[in-house]
TrEMBL record:
Protein name: Protein-export membrane protein SecG
Coiled coil: none
One record GO biological process: intracellular protein transmembrane transport
The keyword RNA-binding is annotated on this UniProt entry: no
Signal peptide: none
Length: 125
C-alpha cells in the first residue's frame, strides 16, 4: 500500500511541475511573459490550467499526509541508532562472590612513578 501511494505521489509531483511550467507568467518578473496592460493587482478568471494546478496540489498534499501517517505507524519504538550500530556499549559490573560491587576494579590503576592522589599536570620539556 505504501509503495502504491509513493508512486502516485511521485507522479503527482511530476505532473504538478509540468503544469506549473506550462502556465503563462503573470508577474513579468524577468520582463517576459503575459499580462497585457492594466494594474497587476486585478484578479484574472480561473483558467483550466489553474484548476488542474489546484487539483494536483491538493492531491499531492493528501498523499504527503498519507505517507507520513503510514510511516508513523510502521515506525518502531526504537531509535535509528539502535537499528544501525547497536547503540552504546554496555558497562560491565564486576562483583565479588558475595554480590558486593568491587569499587577497586572501577578505579584506574595508580601511576607508576608518583602519588595516586596528586593531580595530573603536564611537564615542560
Amino acid at each position: 500500500m505504501e509503495n502504491v501511494i509513493l508512486i502516485v505521489h511521485l507522479l503527482l509531483a511530476l505532473g504538478l511541475i509540468g503544469v506549473v511550467l506550462l502556465q503563462r507568467s503573470e508577474g513579468g518578473g524577468l520582463g517576459m511573459g503575459g499580462g497585457g496592460g492594466g494594474a497587476m493587482s486585478q484578479r484574472s478568471a480561473a483558467t483550466a490550467m489553474g484548476k488542474v494546478t489546484w487539483a494536483l496540489a491538493i492531491a499531492f498534499i493528501i498523499t504527503s499526509i498519507s505517507l507520513t501517517v503510514i510511516s508513523a505507524k510502521n515506525a518502531s519504538g526504537s531509535s535509528i541508532l539502535d537499528r544501525v550500530g547497536g547503540g552504546a556499549p554496555a558497562v560491565e559490573e564486576t562483583a565479588d562472590p558475595a554480590g558486593e560491587l568491587d569499587t577497586d576494579a572501577l578505579l584506574p590503576p595508580p601511576s607508576a612513578g608518583g602519588d595516586a592522589d596528586a593531580p595530573l599536570v603536564p611537564t615542560a620539556d
